[in-house]
Amino acid sequence: MGNCMTGLDALQAVQFITVKGKRLAVLDAENWEILIEWLETLEDLQIARTALAQLKAVGGNRQRAGWLKWDEVQQELE
């Protein structure tokens, strides 16, 4: 991955401070954005895994899985 920071790297960059007896986690804005992007990617992966499992459950039949045809969706988006 080279210089690319991962969500785990962002979490490890958290610094802790205590304010009025309460322990707080501090993360700079760049690391926060990396963390959010990482979480969104994990969410997308889960959605894709669920869709694939549904497709496999109906023997690969996209219509029975409830998938829409691209041409129909594209017309709605235009």
- Count of discrete alpha- or pi-helical segments spanning 4 or more residues: 3
Radius of gyration: 20 Å
Average pLDDT across residues?
Answer: 90
Dominant shape: elongated
Specify the biggest β-sheet. Answer: 2 strands, antiparallel
Query: Strand share of the residues?
Result: 5-15%
Number of strands: 2
Helicity level: 55-70%
Order of helices and strands: HEEHH
The helix-and-strand class reads: alpha+beta
Record the strand order, biggest sheet: 1-2
Q: How many domains, in number, for the residues?
A: 1
User: Are there runs of 5+ residues with pLDDT below 50, and where?
Assistant: none
Taking the alpha carbons of the first and last residues, their distance comes to: 38 Å
